[in-house]
Design goal:
One of its GO terms (molecular function) is structural constituent of muscle. It comes from Coregonus suidteri. The protein is about 0% helix and about 35% strand. The chain is mainly beta and about 200 residues long. The strands form five sheets. A four-stranded mixed sheet has the order 4-8-7-6, with no helix packed on it. Strands 9-10-13 form a three-stranded antiparallel sheet, with no helix packed on it. A three-stranded antiparallel sheet has the order 12-11-14, with no helix packed on it. The longest helix is centred in the N-terminal third of the chain and has 4 residues. The termini are far apart. The N terminus is likely disordered.
């Protein structure tokens, strides 16, 4: 007889499926060889009652949600999570009750026997707000003026990098650009006409 076949081994574990919740079972095992002979049964294992183990649900957060999730204003924000739970949980989504702003967070809550929470930071990118208040006149001469303004309270979800400063004579309707890439909140405007009245505006 082939010694290799005598030494052959088979898996000695088995997962039993199709059992009923709260039902009690006993198990035994018999061995059958290649010629069809069957051994005596093993020692009985059990009784064992089938009971699901309940615990807090698990939320699988995608790697791209580990950092701030950025979306442009006016677009639809869609978030997807993997959820592992038994029994099936109820799922609730939360975000700030007020209008969504750059500091808003989306919150996912799973509920069954225990609650599990997941948070995602969502940043909404929009145009910045205007500089608040009035433009301040810091220094006035016959042909120049220095103006200053405060930074906007709402940066639109990203740092303000520069300002666009414009002027127009009060008697005209057309604006002219002083600077399209001014980094500070103060600027000197030269080459003005003595005696003329001017209006100034700054934006981002």
């Amino acid at each position: 007889m082939d010694k290799g076949k005598l030494d052959q081994r088979f898996d000695t574990h088995y997962t039993v499926t199709g059992l009923t919740q709260d039902e009690t079972y006993e198990f035994r095992v018999m061995a059958k060889n290649a010629v069809g002979s069957v051994s005596n049964p093993s020692i009985i294992a059990g009784p064992a009652t089938c009971v699901d183990t309940y615990g807090a649900p698990e939320i699988e957060i995608p790697d791209e949600y580990r950092e701030v999730v950025k979306h442009k204003a006016g677009t639809t924000v869609e978030l997807r999570f993997g959820i592992i739970a038994k029994p099936a949980p109820t799922i609730e989504w939360y975000k700030d009750g007020k209008e969504l702003d750059p500091r808003a967070q989306a919150q996912l809550v799973q509920k069954n026997a225990a609650d599990t929470y997941a948070y995602v930071r969502v940043q909404i990118l929009d145009k910045p707000g205007p500089p608040p208040g009035e433009i301040q006149l810091k220094k006035v001469t016959a042909n120049s003026i220095t103006i200053m303004w405060d930074p906007p309270e709402d940066e639109g979800g990203a740092m303000v990098t520069h300002y666009i400063v414009e002027k127009r004579e009060a008697s005209r309707i057309q604006w002219s650009i002083i600077s399209e890439n001014w980094a500070e909140c103060i600027v000197n405007v030269p080459r003005l006409i003595k005696g003329n009245e001017y209006i100034f505006v700054s934006g981002e």
